Amino acid sequence: MPETTLREAIARGLREAMEGDDRVFLMGEDIDRYQGPYAVTRGLGEQFGPERVKDTPISESAVVGAGVGAAMAGLRPIVEVMTINFILLALDQVVNNAAKLRYMSNGQITVPLVIRTVTGGGAQLAATHSQSLEGWFASVPGLKVAVPSDPYDALGLLRAAIADEDPVIFAEHALLYRTRGEVPDEPYEVAFGEAKVKREGGDVTLVAYSRMVHVALEAAATLAARGVEAEVVDLRTLRPLDIDTVVESVKKTGRAVVVEETWRTGGFAGELASAIQERAFDHLDGPVGRVGGADVPTPYNRGLEEAAFPNAERVIAAIEKLFGI
Amino acid sequence: MALAVDLDKTLVADLYRQMVLIRRFEERSGWLYMQGKVRGFLHQYNGEEAIAVGAISVLKDDDYIISHYRDHGHALARGLDPGRVMAELMGKVTGTSGGKGGSMHLFDVSKGFMGGHAIVGGHLPLATGLALAIKYRREERAVLCFFGDGAVSQGEFHESLNLASLWQLPVLFFLENNLYGMGTHVERTHAAGRDVYGAADAYGIASHQIDGMDVVAVREAAAEALLKVRSGDGPVLLEAMTYRFVGHSVQDPVAYRDNAELETWRSRDPIDLFKKSVLEDALMEQSAIDEIEADVATTVDEAVRFAEESDDPPPEALYENVYGAAPHAASEEADHDEADSPEESEDWVADA
After folding, report:
1. Shared-domain flag, residues B185 and B330
2. For site-directed labelling of B326, which of A111, A159, B106, B262 has its Cα 20 to 30 A away?
3. pTM of the prediction?
């Protein structure tokens, strides 16, 4: 199977969708002439022209809202918000409009909108540019949230997102764009709400998404050297959430640790820990652990920043402390 | 009031009938609120009827309208069924949103009525997006977007005007300046004072101020503005000066303005002005006016009867239309049913 990067997989998904459906168009800051702040849209402006690859003002609320409005009228806009931190400027449009219009109109209005955005820290961009806010959106009924960790899932989930009749927050991690993986030439989709077991093991379940899947896999490899077999579950979408696959794994291993990049307080990991104990309490050998980011605004200094995010050593330390293995 | 030559007697009767329908509908909605049959917030349109009726009278059937939370007048002027609108106010399954939207969120997509929207200024980006879709498809349609003076302080107003003008989108921004954003006078919120239309200058948008109590003036200004909007020259902003004869909502004791101001505006009641004018110009007979009043009374009675006799939405409506029928959405609803459905647990009632 041919190998590609996550960036190329997303670009391919965008190009295919635009070739296949005139209703699909792109809007965002610096996606055309600049070629995309993360170079995902490189060449698309030349191929499709400025009416379908629209550079916008730095005006997140109006641009996301215009995406909602165009979707209300039957188009299938893909709005790129440069980073998830900037969606804060458009929260009204996302939470009050995109998420609620189908319900409040009793199904008369649909919002088939994809908001692509870049999430995560680790590039020394300090507190305002290093957040992972996707879990917030996962608490909003009416939204869907995709969080791919590899190129195969990125393309498959993007196809599903563009085909979806409801608004999707599609969060691409800034540090995963160069991640390589096999992507088949033939068409496929990755359905929302289907987690994937990335590594099988019988001793402890590590639940993660986006970049933390790689941290969990790294921890699992180290643990394996000492005879502890961790199972790694990649959620792939936070809403809808495939809690069944998680619970099935926990019932097998009897131990669970959720790994999430964002702050522990109020994080999506808390939701997962709660759901696991509700459904698998009698199978648990200990508390459901959470390894999350430090409860601080992300610092700039490299050493401090590294201390603020989960890594494989902290995942292993948590497992040792919680379960004595 | 000068009447334009194009006003034939049928049109005059239609304009009058619609304004009276809105006024009587609102009088009844307030009464139903006092009886506890309409709940939540109720924002009435009394006094502002000439704007909705005049502007919407020049729209085409396939144009879009998008409005704010004081939306009953726009909905009725667009021809939404009064019974279904009243049913929505009463939260009934026959309402325009099946009882899930309420007074502030009326929708009828079949009539291009893309909603009442309840976050001040939040629907202006949506208007811009609807207009973007029109231009993208090279259609002849236009968007009529109503909003109030309070929205002008929001960033979404400025961002939307900039984007709509930058991309030359076919949208008529229709500002209903009733002088108060809730209870705060526009002169206490807008740095340039009570005349707001000049704000459009910064974005290269043509703008005019008109008399919002004169249905014919509104109609003519809207027609002229829509000509420009449809020609591809980009948006226009109209500011109609008006006044609501009632509080911000029915719960508003209206402590922030005095009776003299109200009486001054009441002396220019848009329905009385129009009636006087058309009688003088012999465009309507008193007997025709009496007939319209009687017809409207019947229409409103029937709307109330329809709403009162309609059922509440069934319990299963709670989880309907959160998502479409995609397979993964269905599985999420099934997941909710397991833990949260009324059949399985009564806890949700206590939480609500």
Report:
1. no
2. B106
3. 0.95
